[in-house]
C-alpha cells in the first residue's frame, strides 16, 4: 500500500470517522468558542517509536477547514523520541479542538503499527525472509493499517479477497482436499494469478507441492517440519510461515529459510504510539 493509493481512498473514510465523532455539533468546543479565533497547537511525541500517518492526520483538519496550516518537523518512517516536537498546527481554534481526537486516533494507531513492524523487521535483518501483514485489520482501517506496515519496513500480503488466491483450511474442506482445491483454483483463475495454499503438516505440504501450488503457507507447523518443507520446496514453490507470530517469538523463525513470515499481530495487536496535541493558545 503506497502513499498515493492510500491518500486517494482516504477522504471518505476520514469523513465517516468525523461523522462518527460529530453527529450534530461539538458541544464542548462550542461552549467555550463562540466564533472564529486563530490559534496554534503543538504535536508532541510522548514515547519513542516510528511515525506514520502524518498526511492522514493533516487531512482531518483540512477537511474541516482547508485553511488550516500544518508544519511537520519529521516525515513518515522517521524514528521519533519522547518529548520531541513533531509539528505545529495553526488555524481556527474550533477546528483544532474538534479534529483533535480523530486526527490523533489515526496517527497513534498507524504509528503504533509502524513501530511494531519496524521492531520485527530489525529482528529479520540478515535473512532472506520478508515480513508480511494479513487481512486481520480493523474494519474500515485496512488501507491505513497496511500503509503503516509498509512505512515500518514490512510488506503487504493481498489487500482483500479480490486481490489474490489463498486456499485456507475451509476452502480445502469445501473442495474435498488440497489437490482438488489447487486444481480448481488453477482452472478458475487467470494464469497471471499465483495460487497459495495453507497447510498444517508435511503430508498436506507434499500434496500442495505436487499439485503445483505457487506459494505454500506453513501454518503453526513445528520448526523441524518447516525446515523440511523449505528443503523440499527449493525451486518448486515459495514458502510462508504463519501462526501466532509476534515480536516475542519471531527470532526462532529467522534461520528456517522461508521466503515470507506473515503476522496478524502487526495490525491486530500493535499498541498505539502515544502522541498528543499540547499548548493550544490564541495568536
Descriptive report:
This protein has 283 residues and is of the alpha/beta class. Helices cover 42% and strands 20% of the residues. It has helices at residues 3-8, 10-21, 27-32, 54-64, 93-123, 142-151, 169-175, 178-188, 202-211, 223-233, 265-268; strands at residues 38-45, 49-50, 69-72, 79-80, 85-92, 130-132, 165-167, 195-199, 215-219, 238-242, 260-262, 275-282. The strands form 3 sheets. It has a 6-stranded parallel β-sheet with strand order 6-11-10-9-8-7. Strands 3-5-1-12 form a 4-stranded antiparallel β-sheet, covered by helices on one side. Helix 5 (93-123) crosses helix 6, helix 7 (169-175) crosses helix 8 (178-188) and helix 9 packs parallel to helix 10 (223-233). The chain is elongated and about 70 Å long. The two termini are 39 Å apart.
Strands of the biggest beta sheet: in what spatial order? Answer: 6-11-10-9-8-7
The CATH homology group name of the largest domain: Aldolase class I
Number of helices: 11
Low-pLDDT ranges: none
Strand content: 15-25%
Instruction: Write the CATH architecture name of the largest domain.
Output: Alpha-Beta Barrel
For the record, give the distance between the C-alpha atoms at the N and C termini, rounded to a whole number: 39 Å
CATH class of the largest domain: Alpha Beta
Biggest β-sheet, characterized? 6 strands, parallel
The overall number of domains is 2
Amino acid at each position: 500500500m503506497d502513499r498515493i493509493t492510500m491518500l486517494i481512498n482516504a477522504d471518505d473514510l476520514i469523513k465517516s470517522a468525523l461523522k462518527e465523532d460529530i453527529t450534530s455539533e461539538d458541544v464542548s468546543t462550542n461552549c467555550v468558542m463562540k466564533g472564529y479565533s486563530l490559534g496554534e497547537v503543538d504535536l508532541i511525541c510522548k514515547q519513542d517509536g516510528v511515525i506514520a500517518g502524518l498526511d492522514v492526520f493533516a487531512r482531518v483538519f483540512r477537511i474541516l477547514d482547508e485553511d488550516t496550516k500544518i508544519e511537520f518537523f519529521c516525515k513518515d518512517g522517521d524514528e521519533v523520541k519522547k518529548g520531541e516536537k513533531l509539528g505545529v498546527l495553526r488555524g481556527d481554534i474550533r477546528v483544532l479542538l474538534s479534529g483533535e481526537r480523530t486526527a490523533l486516533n489515526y496517527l497513534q494507531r498507524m504509528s503504533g503499527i509502524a513501530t511494531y513492524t519496524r521492531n520485527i523487521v530489525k529482528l529479520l535483518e540478515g535473512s532472506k525472509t520478508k515480513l508480511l501483514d494479513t487481512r486481520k485489520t480493523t474494519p474500515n482501517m485496512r488501507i491505513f493499517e497496511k500503509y503503516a506496515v509498509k512505512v515500518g519496513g514490512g510488506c503487504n500480503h493481498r489487500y482483500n479477497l479480490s486481490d489474490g488466491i489463498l486456499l485456507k483450511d475451509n476452502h480445502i474442506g469445501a473442495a474435498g482436499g488440497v489437490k482438488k482445491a489447487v486444481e480448481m483454483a488453477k482452472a478458475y483463475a487467470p494464469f497471471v494469478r499465483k495460487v497459495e495454499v495453507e497447510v498444517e503438516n508435511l503430508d498436506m505440504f507434499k500434496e500442495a507441492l505436487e499439485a503445483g501450488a505457487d506459494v505454500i503457507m506453513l501454518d503453526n507447523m513445528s520448526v523441524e517440519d518447516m525446515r523440511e518443507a523449505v528443503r523440499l520446496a527449493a525451486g518448486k514453490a515459495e514458502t510462508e510461515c504463519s501462526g501466532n507470530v509476534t515480536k516475542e517469538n519471531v527470532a526462532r523463525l529467522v534461520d528456517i529459510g522461508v521466503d515470507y513470515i506473515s503476522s496478524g499481530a502487526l495490525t491486530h495487536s500493535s499498541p498505539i504510539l502515544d502522541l498528543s496535541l499540547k499548548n493550544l493558545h490564541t495568536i
